[in-house]
Amino acid sequence: MSIDYSERIPNNVNLAEDRRLRRALESWQPRFLQWWSEMGPTLPTQDVYLRTAVAVGREGWAHFDHVALPDYRWGIFLSERNTDRRIAYGEHKGQPVWQQIPGEYRAELQRLIVIQGDTEPASVEQQRRLGLTAPSLYDLRNLFQVNVEEGRHLWAMVYLLHAYFGRTGRDEAEALLLRNSGSEDSPRILGAFNEETPDWLSFYMFTYFTDRDGKYQLGTLKESAFDPLSRTCEFMLKEEAHHMFVGTTGVDRVVERTAQLTREHDSDDVRKLGGIPLDVIQKYINFHYSVSLDLFGSETSTNVANYFTAGLKGRWQEERRKDDHVLTEAFAVVPRVEGGQVVEARLPALTALNADLRGEYIADCGTGVNRWNRILTDHGLDATLYLPHVGFNRQVGAFAGHHLTPDGRVIEERDWRASRDRWLPTAEDKAYVRALMRPVYEPGKIAAWVAPPRNGINGRPFDYEYVHL
């Protein structure tokens, strides 16, 4: 399915044939461009070496060229339609998927789309000043690639709101540009998207942990019986993979540089050498991982059970599951705190679907930690990084209101206050990391606190001029 770039709004949804919808989106477009101008990247650039979709098939979705950021062709791209696709789960299992929304599910689907849509511009807002302190042109290019794709993901959700939800959908599309990350008066819907991303270590952690949450949320929506939503999310997942690559390899390179400095100078005190100490890296892991766990919501949820039963939102890789895909008789084991200890409770699987998805996410996050520990081992270091306990630093769900150590012990609030600076970034830690954030814009050069990448972009070398300032 090719994408028509001659259109004002590039798309593969035959927008030219729906004049009312086209006019509505063309009316929204100037507001989007104004938002991008006001809340997008602050660093002025001439052009950036960006990837742009030219078709949604396996061979055509990535074309590379230098593009001026304001001229990037945001658009509406859905994966190819499978005319034989049927609902894989819930009470409508086996029926054909929906091309239009059943009236009884309209409000719930709109809410799911709005929440997903709200995260996309939020991350651009969180990252808007990072270009001012980029450690290399390679990293600066990756930041802008993530930003323009988050903008396109916003377009994907706005298309659905305009095309299928009438006036209320148009109102919600407008509101997506009115909320702002960290605003006291009109914040973003989910807490993690109101946190600061003040430095590049935070950016790497965000793209590793928080964008990985996005992968799993999109994966559940890809299973939706509402076929346009499913096809939209399937394409978004291709772009989301790059965001996680940026995070994975970014943390790789921070750990690599710290390990190099430690070995070369035979000292764990890499602060005086301009590196980021492993204990600070661990604190950033603890924070970003725990905040991202909260994005999955409460371990038990009747709303999510209803979404599943109705066919609105499935499980991760639903069709690979070896069960009845209905779950009315199934049970799941979910951790919680009882009597000052973490115990496992046996609960109906339908109400524990958030915990199920979180479990998939946790296993996936562990692969990155294994990578980072291999880097340390390869440099002859005994130190290891880890994921803290699922109950550590949690504000949402079964562990909210409890205080757990990274190894999963329940402690009193006074003990938490006394020890939290050993586990979470302190003001001094953040100030030190920010002090390292000095921009490096010369091709082939890189900041001293991070190692260069092993490979460049699209076969280009590291010293390629990825961004023209």
What are the main properties of this structure?
469 residues, mainly alpha, Ribonucleotide Reductase, subunit A, 3-stranded antiparallel β-sheet, two-stranded antiparallel ribbon, 11 helices, 46% helix, 7% strand, globular
Give a short summary of the structure.
The protein is mainly alpha-helical and 469 residues long.
Report on the structure:
- The chain is mostly helical and 469 residues long.
- It has a single domain (15-468), classed as Ribonucleotide Reductase, subunit A (Orthogonal Bundle).
- Helices cover 46% and strands 7% of the residues.
- It is built from eleven helices and seven strands.
- The strands form three sheets. The chain has a three-stranded antiparallel sheet.
- Strand 5 and strand 6 (410-411) form a beta hairpin.
- Helix 1 packs antiparallel against helix 3 (137-164).
- The radius of gyration is 23 Å and the shape is globular.
- The protein starts with 18 loop residues before the first helix and ends with a strand.
Draw up the topology in text.
Elements: H1 19-39, E1 47-52, E2 63-67, H2 106-126, H3 137-164, H4 166-178, H5 200-222, H6 227-265, H7 278-294, H8 302-310, E3 331-338, E4 341-348, H9 353-378, E5 403-404, E6 410-411, H10 413-423, H11 427-436, E7 467-468
Antiparallel strand pairs: 1-2, 1-7, 3-4, 5-6
Rough shape? Answer: globular
Number of strands: 7
Domains (count): 1
Computed structural class: mainly alpha
User: In the CATH hierarchy, what is the class?
Assistant: Mainly Alpha
Side by side, the strands of the main sheet go 2-1-7
Count every helix, treating DSSP H or I runs of 4 or more residues as helices: 11
Low-confidence stretches: none
CATH fold type:
Ribonucleotide Reductase, subunit A
Q: What would you give as the CATH superfamily?
A: Ribonucleotide Reductase, subunit A
Mean pLDDT: 95
Q: State the end-to-end CA separation.
A: 35 Å
Radius of gyration: 23 Å
* Largest beta-sheet characterization: 3 strands, antiparallel
Percent of residues in β-strands: 5-15%
